Amino acid sequence: MNATVSPPRIFIDSSVLFAAAISATGASRALILLAEIGLLRLVICPLIFEEVERNLKVKAPEALPFFQRLQRALPWEIVSDPTLEEVQACLNIIAAKDAPILAAAIKANPHRLVTLDTRHFNRSEVKEVVKFPIQTPGELLTDIRKALIVIIHPR
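Below the sequence we write its predicted structure tokens.
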């Protein structure tokens, strides 16, 4: 009997999605491609889509059509935005601008949270509260490469 394995649930923040939208290369875009072929399940809340679209309109409007196609084409797992109470619970451990994202990730309980914002998300106060690893796209890709090597070349 073949058991199907669900892909790991990866919560990505707006920095990762923004980077993937503006650059055809790099670790952020690679994660999007892995999700497109079903090896990752990207978890996101509507707030992140709104933030990326707002920032693209200002900083990289030429990338907006690609982002909108991406938004429609990928099999996103869209979780609800955090409540005010959930955001407030995060305010004492992370910058106010990042509290809604952290609250949404905590509520979604993914396998990993992936962000380019290492300054705020890698604080010890944050890592004490979350029950999943917080990584950059490059760090996650390194883990994926290591896992593939073990599968392809077992010792």
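The chain has a mean pLDDT of 95.
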